[in-house]
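Consortium newsletter contribution from the modelling node. Members have asked for a concrete example of what our holo predictions look like. Here is one, prepared for the iron/sulfur cluster complex that several groups have been discussing at recent meetings.
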Amino acid sequence: MALRKQQRLVVDPIACQAHGLCAELLPEMISLDDWGYPILAPGAIPPQARAHARRAVAACPTLALRLVAAADDAGHPGDRVV
Ligand code: SF4
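And here is the predicted structure:
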């Protein structure tokens, strides 16, 4: 059986428009700051949250939320990893 690569969430703070949809779809890993911008839980997404994470990424209206390899620190220069 192949091991599933661990992933984490990143958000592009320029593209994010603070809709807050991601926090509604993935409350176990995303909270909102006072302005409605997402605060991401650090580290890899636990297996039980992967489906919700993919759904939150797909639902982001500005494509600001992305999944990247957990070990990938190169990401997009504007990505916000909290
Ligand atoms: S759904 Fe997308 S645009 Fe809305 S707060 Fe989350 S990351 Fe930002």
